[in-house]
Design brief:
Belongs to the peptidase M16 family. By secondary structure, the chain is an alpha+beta fold. The protein is 45% helix and 18% strand. The protein has helices at residues 2-18, 67-74, 87-93, 118-130, 136-155, 162-170, 184-189, 192-202, 218-229, 278-291, 297-305, 337-353, 358-375, 379-393, 398-408, 411-421; strands at 26-29, 35-40, 46-53, 97-102, 107-114, 208-214, 252-257, 265-272, 309-318, 323-331, 427-433. The strands form 2 sheets. Strands 1-2-6-3-5-4 form a 6-stranded mixed β-sheet, sandwiched between helices. A hairpin with a 4-residue loop joins strand 9 (309-318) and strand 10 (323-331). Helix 4 packs parallel to helix 9 and helix 11 (297-305) packs antiparallel against helix 12 (337-353). The chain is globular.
Length: 440
């Protein structure tokens, strides 16, 4: 009976996903190279205006890390027509909200307004692009803001530097070896002219996508977009030629220390393909199989059954050029880091040597179907997805059909991809320890 109910639920969920509302959109280019995506949804009087720039931490000079993230802050300082300190006041006074975020690959800015303030959102984003004021006052102010963010989120956060240490060892040539927030001494050393040059190079219309999503009239919106963004001059084309990484052929062992923790952690990280590759989707499914929820394989084995770990997990960090697949565990009591890693490896060997069960496979499919249905539940979420699929995948319609990729992944593929990438001789093993020890 349980099996029948499970199958029925799976069928219903699959049907629901198949009939989920298609996200309709229109896309076109302005003469200056700016890409525009429009998604009209008049069910609520809300509008999102968003611009994603194809610039992230990987685009920085090795001795000037942190620039891309710094600009996420700096470009709220003001423009020729928005007084310094007034950006957030204008947004709040008009019933809106806004934010920005940066990754190694892109920087994203957005506003959410009542739909009658669409023009305001477009004007503000065009101001950010056309008329930013980049002066020493703004640089000095935001330098302190970024330093405080680094102290809060990285330096003083338990386990805050583990990704930083993984990247440092898994990438030797590619700029992914750095961190998104960068090094403060690099920002301190940068001249005002360097900040201005960074803006001139990357904050150009032909390196950006503008998304308008929500309740708007298409013809009048197109005219406003042309009026506000059309006159902005095209920038120089950006050429990227990042070095390729050599394969990892033997285990790289490393240690890192964190004064903010009391419990050590063990991490095993593998370099994986770019986010656009099919194997990256398979690895998404594999990480869900291993560690999503308390019924997942790693949690059930190491936390519930064997009681060796306080916490254990796996996640696939996909990026534009490469990905990083990370497994981790925190030991319980006197259990060693080595025993946690051995337990993780046992589950990896099972996936590599046996097909996952039909039941587990169906649970995976159900979860991804459910995530797909929920992924486009807000206008701001849709705007982000539209920008990201264009900028990093070069296929906006993935917002509607990416689920088909997950649906088509087989149990045999999950086994094959685990065999291909997740082997001891292809990884970094990092011991993340509570305090530095005298090695002498």
């Amino acid at each position: 009976m349980k099996k029948n109910l499970f199958s029925l639920a799976a069928l219903l969920l699959a049907g629901f996903a198949a009939n989920a509302q298609e996200v309709k959109f229109e896309e076109y280019d302005l003469s200056n190279g700016m890409h525009v995506i429009l998604h009209q949804d008049r069910t609520a009087p809300v509008i999102t205006t968003a611009v994603m720039y194809h610039v992230g931490a990987k685009d920085e000079q090795p001795d000037r890390t942190g620039m891309a993230h710094f600009f996420e802050h700096l470009l709220f300082e003001g423009t020729e027509n928005i007084e310094r300190g007034d950006w957030f006041k204008i947004v709040a006074a008009n019933g809106g909200s806004n934010n920005a975020n940066t990754t190694d690959d892109r920087t994203y800015y957005y506003e959410v307004f009542p739909s009658n303030n669409l023009e305001l959102g477009l004007w503000m984003e065009s101001e950010r692009l056309m008329h930013p004021i980049i002066n020493q006052i703004g640089v000095d102010t935001q330098n302190e803001v970024v330093k405080e963010e680094k102290r809060l989120r990285v330096d003083n956060a338990p386990y805050g530097k583990f990704i930083e240490n993984i990247k440092l060892h898994i990438f030797k040539k590619h700029p992914y070896k750095g961190t998104t927030i960068g090094k403060m001494e690099h920002l301190d050393a940068a001249s005002l002219e360097e900040f201005q040059e960074f803006n001139k190079k990357f904050y150009v219309p032909n390196n950006a996508v503008l998304v308008v999503a929500g309740d708007f009239d298409v013809p009048s919106t197109k005219k406003m977009i042309e009026d506000y963004f059309g006159p902005i001059p095209r920038g120089e084309d950006i050429v990227r030629n990042f070095p390729k990484e050599d394969p990892i052929t033997e285990t790289i062992k490393a240690k890192a220390y964190d004064s903010n923790i009391q419990i050590p952690a063990i991490m095993a990280a593998y370099r994986t393909p770019a986010m656009t590759e099919r194997d990256a989707y398979v690895l998404d499914m594999l990480s869900t199989y291993l560690s999503s929820g308390k019924t997942s394989k790693l949690y059930k084995k190491l936390v519930d059954d064997e009681k060796k770990a306080l916490q254990v997990g796996a996640f696939n960090q996909s990026q534009e050029d490469y990905g990083t697949y990370i497994l981790f565990g925190l030991p319980l009591g006197d259990n060693t880091l080595e025993s946690i890693l051995a337990g993780i490896d046992e589950e990896l060997v099972k996936v590599q040597s046996e097909l996952i069960s039909e039941r587990d496979y169906q649970k995976l499919q159900n979860k991804f179907e459910n995530d797909f249905v929920n992924s486009n539940s807000s206008i701001s979420g849709i705007a982000n997805s539209l920008a990201r699929y264009y900028m990093l995948y070069d296929d906006v319609n993935l917002i509607n059909n990416e689920i088909d990729i997950y649906r088509s992944i087989t149990r045999e593929e999950i086994q094959a991809v685990a065999k291909k990438y997740l082997n001891p001789n292809q990884r970094v093993v990092l011991e993340y320890l509570p305090e530095a020890k005298d090695e002498n």
